[in-house]
Amino acid sequence: MSKNIIELKGISKDYHIRVLDRINLCVKENEFVTLLGPSGCGKTTMLRIIGGFESPSEGEVFFNGKVINDLPPHKRQINTVFQKYALFPHLNVYENIAFGLRIKKFGEKKIREDVSGMLKLVGLSGFEKRDIESLSGGQQQRIAIARALVNKPKVLLLDEPLGALDLKLRKEMQLELKNMQKEVGITFIYVTHDQEEALTMSDTVVVMNNGEIQQTGTPVDIYNEPENAFVADFIGESNIVEGIMEDDYLVTFLGRKFECVDYGFGRNEEIDVVLRPEDLVITEKSEGMLSGTVTSAIFKGVHYEMIIQVDDVELMVQSTLKSEPGTEAGIKFTPEDIHIMKKQAISGG
């Protein structure tokens, strides 16, 4: 079982306001962890504290079991790739990647071997003499990653490194980054506000809001079992309705009782129910577990997104088949499609 390489214990950060509030987090060796949340949630501040560019107001940062709060960035076995790649425009590709090795006074043979290996890893062999400014955004991003990895850090921090790329290139680089991480076998801690990016790349997703961790788990767990309304709403599209947990495996919402797979709540406890739009199936009104009127249908490329008015609640349904506005329709789903969350007040969500 992998051991923890990074541990944050009671980390808080205050400027004129508190931007991180008593954060506790463990990151395992060789894990791809993504800090996910909206702008201003504290994820980049947390990354900078791990990297040594900021000091916590409270709490301790551990690296392999040792406190590193007072260790400057260049003495940590941690490298960072920033959103603005911070490459040296006056140096060619080779010298950009070699920069850290020269600081460490490695010999030319070692530098040549390591730079060549990194260029091969990022798919840019033969680019040694190219000027940085002649490269595309995606190529520059690969050089920034190569420059960070050539120093063989134990942990690589990535602060929204794909933010400046176009959508097609971002999707390509998501897969390439994950493959690189597997190949080099080091810990990646990645910051993004893009939910799809987090779900695509990560072993573990840490969802943040207002300086606090809302939920930590695998992408599947985060998506299928959100712990509160903020997570459910932030990760993908969600229908969230109020309900009552009548008993284990039995829930009432929208005036009807349904079997579900959740248990362990109090009898007659007020809860929130999450229904993912892609899990709902439109059917004939008479066959539906719920029924209502289609009020809109928008084509989204791979599916239609329809709003169905059920009593005084609007439910979003995604389907490859279009139901015309004004149609009376039924909605079907399974007990596994009903996700129960405890009521929880989330400020700013």
From TrEMBL:
Q: Which UniProt keywords apply?
A: ATP-binding, Cell membrane, Membrane, Nucleotide-binding, Translocase, Transport
- Cited CDD domains: ABC_PotA_N (cd03300)
| Top-level taxon | Bacteria
EC class name: translocase
Question: Its Enzyme Commission number?
Answer: 7.6.2.11
Please report the stretch or stretches of sequence annotated as the ABC transporter domain.
6-235
The protein in question is named: Spermidine/putrescine import ATP-binding protein PotA
Source organism of the structure: Dethiosulfatibacter aminovorans DSM 17477
The major lineage groups are: Bacteria, Bacillati, Bacillota, Tissierellia, Dethiosulfatibacter
Q: Which gene is the coding source of this polypeptide chain?
A: potA
